[in-house]
Sequence to fold (484 residues):
Amino acid sequence: MHPNKLKSFGHKINREGEHYESSTLFQENGYPARRPWFPHTGNVYQEIIPSAQTGYPYKIKALMTHKGTPVLSSPAGHKMIEALVDPNVIPLYIASDIVIGETSMYADYIFPDTAIWERYGTPHTTPASPIKHSKTRQPTVEPLVEKVKVFGEEMHTNMEAFMLAVAEKLKLPGYGKNGFGPGMDFTRQEDFYLKMVANLAAGDKPGEALSDATAKEMKIFRKSRRHLSKAVLDEQRFQKSVIDMKGTNWWKKVVHVLNKGGRMEDFDAYRNSGDKLPHKFGKMFNIYVEEVALTKHPYTGKRFSGLGLYLPTLGYDDKPVDQGKYPLKLITYKEIIGGQSRTLPNDYYLSAIGPENHIIINAVTAAEYGVKDGDLAKLVSPGNTDGVWDLKNGETKPVAGKVKVVQGLRPGVVSVSWSYGHWAYGSNDVLIDGQAIPGDERRKKGLCPNAVMHVDPVLKNVALEDLIGGSASYYDSKVNLVKL
Fold:
């Protein structure tokens, strides 16, 4: 909206959405590229820190993380620790986090963030839903972090407050008074988020705007939020942030959306669609994808196939990966009680159901290895023969846990769920401003298998990757089981 807004330029460090052949690096070096390029996808999460470590396509001066912990969540995430502890690779690391996590523990500065119950957002919706809807996130409790003043406004510290403070300090265009245009200030995060909610209320086309919240709905809105301070909810201030350039006040329509937690299409669209889905897939579905077939492999220079092929596990050099004499196939998954950070390990009532995860194997495999239910064992792999997380601070954590023997798993396969086995995230003792905060042993229970997942044999600091879809491999690693 701002005429002088900043725009990004150049290649992203993980080279997503970019063709290698369009870069000056290709003109200078040809094939093979030092690291893969991913023209057909985005969110290549696992490549950011390893690319910074390699300095390709450039070195970085600062890293900032938010709502993520790549060390813990990425396959072969233990290799990222080597980059995070090296100031020649990452001179400055700033984290915005609700905890001192397995990645943010290496940060130079940690700025407290607000948790999901304390902040605004517009989370993505599942593509499996047959009807159109958009979700909104909003504070339901007063945030438990400190308050700060930015642009003269009192607010709780979080990622958005930090970014606004940087904008204020650097006098960046598009922020502060008239940041969105004449009479439209951008001094609070709500100035941004409430406009997004107003967009939802307006709909995709003219005539799709929602009705105003009724007097009863306005009463419900105010009463249900009466416990929030003005630093979180200032209705008079918020109304100003959703007055558009024509002078239209969208506040009551915004309340209509916030009261419902989003905008949802009437379910009658589904109920009345007969034996068809209410919204057809409007694009061509291709078995042969020409765009992919016209793309060349950044290492070999050979064209990709435009067809889906069954291939062996390949490294970046497009050659089959040799994982040596490691006979067991490792797979992983998320338990429903440990799906994301708002479940295990911090919700302790769930620990009564599953206090720890296990190394799950078939009874046939258990007999071959001489282990039984409850035995302690460790996983080792070609790239991690010791089977440990090396934290690079003098501490190691074994990839070890209790064995669980089942019939419902194929022999020769090892399955370990994710979300357990923390070494930070409140599990360890920390010293903050001279005050010792003891860790909670419950958060250490179980194991995280990512440190024994296979590292690409060419790149050597990242997991095996799909060069077309950009995903990291969680299911192509071979391991062995060592009884302890």
In short: The domain at 308-483 is CATH 2.40.40.20 (Barwin-like endoglucanases).
